[in-house]
Task: structure prediction
Amino acid sequence: MDLGVFLPVSGRAASRATLTESAQRAEELGFAAVWAADRVVMPWSIETPYPYADGSAFIVPPDRPFLECLSVLAFLAGVTQRIRLGASVVVMNFRHPLHWFRQATSIDRLSEGRLILGVGVGWMEEEFAAMGAPYAERGRVGNEQLEVIHRLLSEDHVSYHGDFYHFEDIAFYPKAHGEKLPLWVGGEGRRARHRAARYGDAWFPYFVRITPEELARRYEEVKRAASGHGREVSLACCLPVEITDTEVPQEPDRLRGTPAQVGAALRRFEDVGVTHVALQFMAPRYPDRVSQVEAFAAGGGWL
Result:
């Protein structure tokens, strides 16, 4: 199992300097990947419960910057050398697949195969309304986009006629830098697991709290469904983490404690077959977040 770290793409810290510093330092420390979250618009009022933090409120105020995911990764491709560049996750439904996937394959080519393309179908109903995208049909739209992507990667003369997307006999180059562009399908529910099984190279959920055993139990459904499609799908995940100065009582469904405690907890995820964990360090201020990343790198036993 290897580790990634989320980038400061939102809030006051989101800038050229901090992103460059964060990505280059993660590369120096030995992280396998850096991850950029995705948001297109920020409604002033959000009633949809936010599933990726304690409580239900979205954690980035609407008057704070939120940089576009693929643009950030394209920029970082030019200021890093080895570290992989991850999208966690592109909300496909807000973009036409022929447009945004051209961006993705360009990043993969320019970074010489370092892109990990996390994809999902979104969660915020207000954002769908602003974008004019159908919220109730977001799963079907996402599935069509994934079908389009697979054709774009594998065919020279590409045609597609679905309920949402239509085109006839187009060329699409560049494709991936190498033989494969890793496609990691996000989402936590049953439909997301089956979407990953059918289309993904990995299931890539974000759980605020989950035990390794429960994650493995849910992954079994992905493996069974993938087997029915004649496929194999690996397991990766995003997890929040908090580094403390002194030891704290350990909770089996949470990454919180000293670097050594968190490092030991991560071993349990490796033991159940997780291949990658994208760590979101939860300190609210960017300097404190940097300190937590540095402390974990020095004492977690992973890097």
The chain has nine helices and eleven strands. The domain at 2-299 is CATH 3.20.20.30 (TIM Barrel). The first strand starts at residue 2 and ends at 6.
